[in-house]
Amino acid sequence: MSDTAVIKLASISKDDADSVMQQIKTITSSLNIKTRGPFPLPTKKIKLATRKAPGADGSHTFEKWELRIHKRLMKIYANDQALRQIMRIAVPDTVQIEITLM
Fold first, then answer.
1. pTM reported for the whole predicted model
2. Which domains does the chain have, with CATH numbers?
3. Is the pLDDT reported for residue 54 higher than 80?
């Protein structure tokens, strides 16, 4: 029985997200499974400015921080055996993975 799985990755590290997608691609290519992607989705940027000096006196200087969340999307037309192998991939702590079966 062939299912369609949609894999979504979100990571603060672009290299970690790309390495997980590369591992998925090697598994699917070794099993001759039809895939679509990986598609890079727009990067979400979270910006925050905080005051350097905690008190009210002194100059008004700010530190600017930015967090980037990189997203990837991939469709896999796979069977149960391939999905089990994909679920065994060691995913780093910086990567969140979501697998949806259709």
1. 0.82
2. 3-53+61-101 (3.30.70.600)
3. no
